[in-house]
Here is the input.
Amino acid sequence: MRINLISLLACASAMLMAGVSCGNSIEPDDNDNPYKSLDLTTKSMEFVEKGNTFAFNFIDRINSYEKKDYVVSPLSMQFLLGMILDGAKGTTADEICQVLGFGEGQNGAVNEYCLSLLEQLPKMDKKTTLSIADAIFVDDGWPLKKSYKEDVGKYYKAAVENLDFSNQAKALKVINGWCNDNTNGLIPKVL
Here is the structure.
């Protein structure tokens, strides 16, 4: 079976725009601390270490193939695999969970962890703007189940849409338009 799936996590990326200042650094007092810590469940705390292991393994693998400069987002890859996991069953689902380091049958835990990160990360540093946006565009020939769209929308705040890929110009306009809108014009064209 062949599925035409385009997930725009690279475009739908974790887009980070950090403010940079020069001069003397002033430490804020505890009452004015611009930084927040993540509020995670015990289960999610276990996933942080596993997520870091996944990230470093992912970067090592990219480094072994890519011999020039590149930009990669392991967090985006985790979200991508989480969204794919929501549509997977059986061995495929178990393998995705294992790759992420969560263990078999942890689909719900993966969703909750990713949702927690999506909601909390943008609020962690008052001096930094972090936007995370995800989308999955699937060819019209592969209709998506309503429950899948709902889960991906709920846990990943992702756009999920069927497009007519045979009309390439229109599909590209939708995908590139989504990317442009969700990166504040920083990535006007991804495809």
The two ends are 25 Å apart (CA to CA).
